[in-house]
């Protein structure tokens, strides 16, 4: 059982790190481009809220507690919300002529394209880790139920 807890903790810490990076990048972009965004700032506010929710819930779910259906629901809901944020940033970056969104070789600069591509990466990775955490929680729940059935039906 300790290996399962270690894996669950690693997943939560990864969610926390990727969500924090996405919050930071989105905040930086909003702060630096607040006058030039025009009508498209609502998408970035959505991304900011969703990534902040991912940050808060991954931090709260690091607290050891029995697994519940609420935890699984949060994992899958945040997966969907973060994929939506990924799509919003991807849609915004399309007309900027930044190249492919999957070309992540040069994201360490300070241009709009590099910042937004890094934001895309961290939103995508946070979403994937929330999905993996949800699937891991389902596997853990099914395993516990099967162990309970085996214990109830064994006579020796």
UniProtKB/TrEMBL annotation:
Residue ranges occupied by any MARVEL domain in the UniProt entry: 7-133
Q: Name one GO cellular component term.
A: membrane
Task: Give the record's membrane topology.
Answer: Multi-pass membrane protein
> Where found, per UniProt?
Membrane
Superkingdom, natural source: Eukaryota
Provide this UniProt record's keywords sorted from A to Z.
Answer: Membrane, Transmembrane, Transmembrane helix
| Pfam families on file | MARVEL
Protein's UniProt keywords contain Membrane = yes
Q: Show the stretches that span the lipid bilayer.
A: 43-64, 76-94, 118-139
Put simply, this protein is called MARVEL domain-containing protein
Native source organism of the sequence = Oidiodendron maius (strain Zn)
